[in-house]
Amino acid sequence: MSSLICSEVHTFTHQLEEEGEGGTRLARFMFSSPPGLGREWTTLNFGPSELEFSGMRRSRSIPVDVGEDSGGEDIEVPRFTSLDCRGLGDDMVEYDSDGDMDLPRKGAGKDKELVLEHMLATELGEVGLQVWRGSLVLADYLLEHHQQFSGKNLLEVGSGTALASIVASICGANVLATDIEEKGILELMEKNIKRNKTLLNGEINVRPLNFKSELNKRDDLSNIEIVLAGDVIYDDDITEDFIKFIVNLHNKVTCDTLKFVVALEKRYVFTVADLDTVAPAHDFFIHQLEQFNVNNKTHKITTNYIHLDFPQYFCYERSKDMVMLEIICELKE
What we know:
Elements: E1 14-19, E2 25-31, E3 53-60, E4 74-80, H1 81-84, E5 94-95, E6 101-102, E7 112-118, H2 133-144, H3 146-149, E8 153-157, H4 163-170, E9 174-179, H5 185-195, E10 204-208, E11 226-230, H6 236-252, E12 258-265, E13 269-271, E14 276-278, H7 280-295, E15 299-305, E16 322-331
Parallel strand pairs: 8-9, 8-11, 9-10, 11-12
Antiparallel strand pairs: 1-2, 2-7, 3-4, 5-6, 12-16, 13-14, 15-16
Helix pairs in contact: 2-4, 6-7
């Protein structure tokens, strides 16, 4: 019996014919840009000498609530060339039939593509080499709330293929992308970041990190403000280590309140003990969070569910079994 594990994401991605190294594959992930992301506008400041009068142009005057056939009159209005397109590139300015500027519309950006190298199937210990749905949900959330992440210092744990880290950089965040230092995962992350470098806005650094890592000697975590975690909850031992990691990281960072954004998928199995179909990894994680404030004497956490009603920018099947949580960690008073 095969012990290989395969992510369902691979069933609806566009696999490229080109193959990577060591049996990896390349896949294209198409996504759209939310309104305002990457749109730069120039502040227009004019001095008196710059308001150069360039003659008259004709424009049709139509009173409010009156249609085109109502006999509106033609009027002459002054035209100032310096007001027409200063600060806008030639490829950004178009004119309508009346000679008025037709400025770029909000949210009119074209679809973009992100190319990732990944494995189609792996052993359990190598699942970081695959693309999982949690990373895509995180990516959608980042894009929808890009203004909240722009300029922030983010840590992603269990980055895997670095999909969410790359999207966080697209949103303008400075990202520390981390995963275990084995199975070639860090090398894969580096290659995917380099492959998509033209999309990046914020800085991305790749470093090894697992939930049992000694953080006292780390000098790259103190400025972290937000932590991303996509599909890292699938084993009870890992969950217990993750709960301890929340506290250890809070003790390391300089901010008083540390926010974790966690995406995970309920994976159901039938158990004889329950005589029912349950999601044991998810249920154990939620139980650990509920008991945290009772068991921990120094820290407290606040857990909020994030509704998955935000737009989907990536092309994939968003499962109803996906769960997103916002976990806030701070010291007890």
